[in-house]
């Protein structure tokens, strides 16, 4: 859906841009409804040879990582609509080339709202997502029904419903902007009034002395947007109250929509104009998304897929607290070495995981996290000596 809509957008509304190639793993002969069938290719080499910028929107961690590494070898910038990849291998990739998540999905929309807020002098304390519905363990029958009704895959439908996607999105935002979480899995406040919920989250962020990422479950007002909770200069309080944002000290700024593929072109233009990164998972992440068992499973059972599957769901964790967690984006056809209980966090000791480039990159990044933690635990003088060497 994303690629179809994005290509139509460029064709009809971006006359200065040209879609040269579209990479697909499917048989080209089966894609007769694609808006630019002559651009389709199964060759990464052909894609790269005819491109100035790559838009990666597969939602696939493994294939997306392969394509992005090839693009960086050719010196091409990459725009993603793939928070799943960002949170899994994105921190490694962000150190190898220009990698940015696009405006349109919630993380990019939050990043754009943040830029506007900063230019107006606001100081973000809370990066918030609005989630319309949550069921941690939906049935296959429910997901098949909603998948057909909404015209998206059952995997996407499941990851949206069980909360995995919002956890992934908020972790990318937190890593990108130096925000943290208050607890594993986020607060996820039930909300009938966004201003009241925003004030609660603002108090929490102030209490821990660091910006946070979280989400609300709206009731009585529309979901689907993003919001910030901010502070501003005390001298501006009378003017801001006059502008109908209330007396402060917390101000809620909302963007009540995210239009996915219709907004990606803005980030493409940004990069081509030299505007740089809108958002990525950063090269020094502090948060990850762990896999949590949805049911009791025995040794020898297979987790067919992590994100969007019926065996596990994702929860945000602090890397320092759960360094041995398995990033949910790595799980596909993964056999359990030992039994796990419903609600248990899956670790690398629990599974037989298949080798992959993505796994190698995750272990490289994990080693860096360990090294940073060791440095920060040393006295200041020792850290200074290490830096000087």
From TrEMBL:
Segments forming domain Oxidoreductase DRL-like catalytic: 104-264
Q: Which domain of life is it from?
A: Bacteria
- SUPFAM superfamilies this protein is in? NAD(P)-binding Rossmann-fold domains (SSF51735)
User: What name does UniProt use for this protein?
Assistant: NAD(P)-dependent oxidoreductase
């Amino acid at each position: 859906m994303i690629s179809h809509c994005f290509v139509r957008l460029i064709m009809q509304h971006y006359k200065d841009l040209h879609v040269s190639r579209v990479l697909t793993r499917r048989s080209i002969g089966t894609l007769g409804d694609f808006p630019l069938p002559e651009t389709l290719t199964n060759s990464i080499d052909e894609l790269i040879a005819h491109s100035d910028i790559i838009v990666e929107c597969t939602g696939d961690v493994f294939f997306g990582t392969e394509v992005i590494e090839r693009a960086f070898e050719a010196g091409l910038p990459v725009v993603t609509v793939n928070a799943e990849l960002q949170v899994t291998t994105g921190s490694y990739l962000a150190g190898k080339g220009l990698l940015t998540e696009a405006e349109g999905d919630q993380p990019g929309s939050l990043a754009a709202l943040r830029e506007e807020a900063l230019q107006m002098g606001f100081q973000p304390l809370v990066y918030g997502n609005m989630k319309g519905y949550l069921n941690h363990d939906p049935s296959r029958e429910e997901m098949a029904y909603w998948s057909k009704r909404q015209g998206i895959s059952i995997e996407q439908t499941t990851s949206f419903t069980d909360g995995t996607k919002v956890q992934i999105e908020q972790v990318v935002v937190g890593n990108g902007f130096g925000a943290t979480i208050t607890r594993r899995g986020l607060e996820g406040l039930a909300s009938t009034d966004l201003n009241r919920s925003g004030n609660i989250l603002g108090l929490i962020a102030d209490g821990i002395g660091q910006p946070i990422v979280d989400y609300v479950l709206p009731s009585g007002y529309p979901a689907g947007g993003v919001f910030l909770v901010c502070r501003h200069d005390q001298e501006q309080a009378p003017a801001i109250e006059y502008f109908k944002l209330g007396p402060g000290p917390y101000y809620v700024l909302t963007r009540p929509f995210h239009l996915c593929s219709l907004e990606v072109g803005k980030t493409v233009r940004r990069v081509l104009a030299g505007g740089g990164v809108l958002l990525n998972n950063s090269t020094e992440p502090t948060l990850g998304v762990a896999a949590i068992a949805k049911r009791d499973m025995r040794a020898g059972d297979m987790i067919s897929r992590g994100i969007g599957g019926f065996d596990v769901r994702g929860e945000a964790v602090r890397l320092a607290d759960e360094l041995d967690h398995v990033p949910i984006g790595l799980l596909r056809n993964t056999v359990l070495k030992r039994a796990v209980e419903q609600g248990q966090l899956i670790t690398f000791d629990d599974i037989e995981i298949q080798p992959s480039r993505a796994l190698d990159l995750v272990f490289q990044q994990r080693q860096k996290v360990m090294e940073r933690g060791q440095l920060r635990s040393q006295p200041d003088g020792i850290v200074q000596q290490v830096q000087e060497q």
